[in-house]
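Before a computer can learn anything about folding, someone has to put a protein's shape into writing. The outcome of that step, for a single protein, is printed below:
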Amino acid sequence: MNIKIGIIGGSGLEKLNIFQNSKESNIHTPYGKPSSTLITGSIEGIDVAILSRHGREHTIPPTQVNNRANITALKEVGCTHILATTACGSLREEIKRGDVVIPDQFIDFTRHREITFYDKFEPDNLKHTPLADPFSEQLRKILIDVASDLKLNFHPRGTVITIEGPRFSTRAESNMFSFVGRRCYQYVGCA
């Protein structure tokens, strides 16, 4: 199987000059334009495509990010796996600034953006998306093994809580999210 990694990252990731044979591509999808052009190339023999989630100049607020176009654009250039980074903060004291968290669950508290590719039921093609375990266990294992080999400060499990940015949480909301995270970790394993 040929592997091509898609990376959805923050603004500036594409400026790292980490590619061999880099190329910039403008992709149009049935869902509109992705957040940025794609920079493709290879890193140590692995094909990679990078997309800036908030645009190259960080001009797209979180609620306006066209996630469906971003995913579709990466698929159209042949990506088989997608890694998405985030760096907003932690509600757990044991997760320090600079630590890497390899999430196994998410909680979506957004209200204003598209959350599915299947927003219409076609009579012969009903789609319900199972999300009990939303992240690839195979990819998570690879990331955990690599983080361990590199001796990074990392956490092999975690729950990403997504809110409707660019507004951050109130103290009451953060307390609620922190409480929910602790309860999930202790009782149902979704840390």
User: Anything to note?
Assistant: The two ends are 33 Å apart (CA to CA). Helices lie at 67-76, 137-149, 171-187. The longest helix spans residues 171-187.
